[in-house]
């Protein structure tokens, strides 16, 4: 297998940049550039030179022996001065060494997985950790990276293998007159896995929100101050505001971090009947996005009723607080009145939704668990029907085991792998 190398830190100017080399020729590479192979895991200062002896940089060099590195392969890291010229020169020198080639995006991680250091779910966790922008995202990704899902799946697998073995024993002994009724134990094992799967499945949609962000739409009639409110919440002029009703047409998105939760705020076109063809398209989009959002903030001015129906947790506020005598339940993007209270309320509502997340975080996990659950439910129907159905029930258990195996990539991974690694950065 080729030895691969890549810049592992971000492109561009930086204090320090890390160039990583992994594979059977990594120590050959460090010897060529640094003159020797520094003691593993000990940061060692070396002058790096190309093959003509031209000095490239003074760098800290780290080596990792095979089986004691992130990838599981022999690995070397060059921590160089982070200029584009130094990085380019070192990469160039590496390309001169036989058997070395630039890594593909995610290839170090792919090797870590192939060498059994990470399972598929952990690879997904690592991808999420690198993408994480908020606290909730960081915590969730780190939990997945730590291998919780794999360990849980291993527990399910053990229980189901035991259940299947017990059932198969019944089949084998069916002709003999040793009547062993194993079905209570089998039922108990299967039921415990079913309960655990149901719980994990129910947490996935929330985990998905934490990964991709909650959507909160601001809706209301034209000119009530929706865009002004969005700008106040965002702390910048993201949307155009004006005294003309019908200013906003496209949906304007602003990313926010609400106490660690990722939120996309949506400003939408004011809802009304209109003859204007373009405004009308904007209003259709506004309705659609508002309906799909996790939460809506309705701004109401005067006694106009919102012409979309608020749902359970939706927030309804009176607009332009400064023009009203009393101010409770009113807000003003212009004066800032009520903004802090709105932020608190949004945070509380979304936080309560974000609780109850388990250790499965992706649609892929949900689908695998749902397939497993379906087979187990079928088995639970067959079990009380006695020995004639035992072989079909055992087959359902096997099918469930296979479905759950795909969670950690024990089976059918090629199709998912390409998709996951395509999203990785170079050097990871
Ligand atoms: N410089 C640097 N920093 C980094 C990484 C890296 O590859 N290089 N990581 C990369 O993502 C993360 C750390 N993850 C790592 C995971 C395992 C091993 C490792 O060497 N594991 C060996 C030895 C363990 C030990 O001796 O304690 C092993 O598991 O056998 C290294 C880094 C974040 N920071
Ligand atoms: N007095 C007062 N005026 C406000 C307030 N918020 C917005 N306005 C004014 O109301 C007008 C409309 O504000 P926008 O934020 O553009 O209203 P909008 O709801 O986004 O309007 P459309 O995009 O047309 O649907 C502007 O002239 C704002 O300056 C407020 O809290 N108090
Ligand atoms: Mg607007």
Automatic annotation (TrEMBL):
<feature type="binding site">
    <location>
        <begin position="223"/>
        <end position="228"/>
    </location>
    <ligand>
        <name>GTP</name>
    </ligand>
</feature>
<dbReference type="Pfam" id="PF12631">
    <property type="entry name" value="MnmE_helical"/>
</dbReference>
<feature type="binding site">
    <location>
        <begin position="242"/>
        <end position="248"/>
    </location>
    <ligand>
        <name>GTP</name>
    </ligand>
</feature>
<feature type="binding site">
    <location>
        <position position="77"/>
    </location>
    <ligand>
        <name>(6S)-5-formyl-5,6,7,8-tetrahydrofolate</name>
    </ligand>
</feature>
<dbReference type="GO" id="GO:0005737">
    <property type="term" value="C:cytoplasm"/>
</dbReference>
<feature type="domain" description="TrmE-type G">
    <location>
        <begin position="213"/>
        <end position="351"/>
    </location>
</feature>
<dbReference type="InterPro" id="IPR006073">
    <property type="entry name" value="GTP-bd"/>
</dbReference>
<protein>
    <recommendedName>
        <fullName>tRNA modification GTPase MnmE</fullName>
        <ecNumber>3.6.-.-</ecNumber>
    </recommendedName>
</protein>
<dbReference type="GO" id="GO:0005525">
    <property type="term" value="F:GTP binding"/>
</dbReference>
<keyword id="KW-0479">Metal-binding</keyword>
<keyword id="KW-0342">GTP-binding</keyword>
<dbReference type="InterPro" id="IPR031168">
    <property type="entry name" value="G_TrmE"/>
</dbReference>
<keyword id="KW-0547">Nucleotide-binding</keyword>
<feature type="binding site">
    <location>
        <position position="428"/>
    </location>
    <ligand>
        <name>(6S)-5-formyl-5,6,7,8-tetrahydrofolate</name>
    </ligand>
</feature>
<dbReference type="Pfam" id="PF10396">
    <property type="entry name" value="TrmE_N"/>
</dbReference>
<feature type="binding site">
    <location>
        <begin position="267"/>
        <end position="270"/>
    </location>
    <ligand>
        <name>GTP</name>
    </ligand>
</feature>
<keyword id="KW-0963">Cytoplasm</keyword>
<dbReference type="GO" id="GO:0003924">
    <property type="term" value="F:GTPase activity"/>
</dbReference>
<dbReference type="InterPro" id="IPR027368">
    <property type="entry name" value="MnmE_dom2"/>
</dbReference>
<dbReference type="InterPro" id="IPR005225">
    <property type="entry name" value="Small_GTP-bd"/>
</dbReference>
<comment type="subunit">
    <text>Homodimer. Heterotetramer of two MnmE and two MnmG subunits.</text>
</comment>
<dbReference type="GO" id="GO:0046872">
    <property type="term" value="F:metal ion binding"/>
</dbReference>
<comment type="function">
    <text>Exhibits a very high intrinsic GTPase hydrolysis rate. Involved in the addition of a carboxymethylaminomethyl (cmnm) group at the wobble position (U34) of certain tRNAs, forming tRNA-cmnm(5)s(2)U34.</text>
</comment>
<dbReference type="InterPro" id="IPR025867">
    <property type="entry name" value="MnmE_helical"/>
</dbReference>
<feature type="binding site">
    <location>
        <position position="248"/>
    </location>
    <ligand>
        <name>Mg(2+)</name>
    </ligand>
</feature>
<dbReference type="InterPro" id="IPR027266">
    <property type="entry name" value="TrmE/GcvT-like"/>
</dbReference>
<dbReference type="InterPro" id="IPR004520">
    <property type="entry name" value="GTPase_MnmE"/>
</dbReference>
<dbReference type="InterPro" id="IPR027417">
    <property type="entry name" value="P-loop_NTPase"/>
</dbReference>
<dbReference type="GO" id="GO:0030488">
    <property type="term" value="P:tRNA methylation"/>
</dbReference>
<keyword id="KW-0460">Magnesium</keyword>
<feature type="binding site">
    <location>
        <position position="20"/>
    </location>
    <ligand>
        <name>(6S)-5-formyl-5,6,7,8-tetrahydrofolate</name>
    </ligand>
</feature>
<comment type="similarity">
    <text>Belongs to the TRAFAC class TrmE-Era-EngA-EngB-Septin-like GTPase superfamily. TrmE GTPase family.</text>
</comment>
<keyword id="KW-0819">tRNA processing</keyword>
<dbReference type="Pfam" id="PF01926">
    <property type="entry name" value="MMR_HSR1"/>
</dbReference>
<keyword id="KW-0378">Hydrolase</keyword>
<keyword id="KW-0630">Potassium</keyword>
<dbReference type="InterPro" id="IPR018948">
    <property type="entry name" value="GTP-bd_TrmE_N"/>
</dbReference>
<feature type="binding site">
    <location>
        <position position="117"/>
    </location>
    <ligand>
        <name>(6S)-5-formyl-5,6,7,8-tetrahydrofolate</name>
    </ligand>
</feature>
<feature type="binding site">
    <location>
        <position position="227"/>
    </location>
    <ligand>
        <name>Mg(2+)</name>
    </ligand>
</feature>
<dbReference type="GO" id="GO:0002098">
    <property type="term" value="P:tRNA wobble uridine modification"/>
</dbReference>
């Amino acid at each position: 297998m080729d030895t691969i190398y890549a810049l592992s830190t971000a492109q561009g100017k930086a204090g320090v940049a890390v160039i990583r080399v992994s594979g059977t020729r990594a120590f050959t590479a460090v010897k060529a550039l640094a003159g020797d192979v520094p003691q593993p895991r000990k940061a060692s200062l070396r002058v790096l030179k190309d093959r003509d002896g031209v000095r490239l940089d003074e760098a800290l060099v780290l080596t990792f022996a095979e089986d004691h590195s992130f990838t599981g392969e022999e690995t070397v890291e060059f921590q160089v001065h982070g200029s584009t010229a130094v990085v380019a020169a070192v990469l160039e020198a590496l390309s001169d060494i036989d058997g070395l080639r630039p890594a593909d995006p995610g290839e170090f991680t792919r090797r870590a997985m192939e060498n059994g250091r990470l399972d598929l779910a952990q690879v997904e966790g690592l991808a999420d950790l690198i993408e994480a922008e908020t606290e909730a995202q960081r915590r969730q990704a780190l939990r997945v990276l730590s291998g919780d899902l794999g360990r849980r799946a291993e527990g399910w697998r053990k229980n189901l293998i035991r259940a299947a073995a017990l059932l198969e024993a019944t089949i084998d002994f069916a002709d003999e007159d040793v009547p062993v009724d194993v079905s209570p134990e089998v039922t108990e094992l299967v039921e415990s896995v079913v309960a655990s799967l149901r719980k994990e499945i129910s947490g996935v949609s929330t985990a998905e929100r934490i990964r991709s962000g909650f959507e909160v739409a601001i809706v209301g009639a034209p000119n009530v101050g929706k865009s002004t409110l969005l700008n106040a919440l965002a702390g910048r002029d993201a949307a155009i505001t004006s005294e003309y009703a019908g200013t906003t047409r496209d949906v304007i998105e602003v990313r926010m971090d609400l106490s660690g939760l990722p939120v996309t705020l949506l400003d939408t076109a004011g809802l009304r009947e209109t003859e204007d063809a373009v405004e009308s398209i904007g209003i259709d989009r506004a309705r659609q996005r508002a309906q799909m959002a996790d939460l809506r903030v309705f701004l109401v001015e005067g006694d106009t009723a919102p012409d979309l129906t608020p749902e359970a947790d939706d927030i309804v506020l009176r607009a332009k607080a400064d023009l009203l005598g009393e101010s409770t339940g009113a807000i003003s993007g212009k004066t800032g009145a009520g903004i802090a209270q709105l932020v608190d309320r949004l945070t509380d509502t979304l936080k309560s939704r974000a609780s109850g997340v388990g250790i499965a975080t992706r649609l892929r996990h949900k689908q695998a668990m749902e397939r497993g659950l379906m087979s187990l439910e079928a088995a639970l129907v067959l079990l009380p029907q006695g020995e004639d159905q035992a072989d079909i029930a055992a087959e359902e258990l096997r099918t469930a085991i296979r479905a759950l195996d795909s969670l950690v990539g024990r089976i059918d991974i090629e199709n998912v792998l390409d998709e996951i690694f395509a999203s990785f950065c170079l050097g990871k």
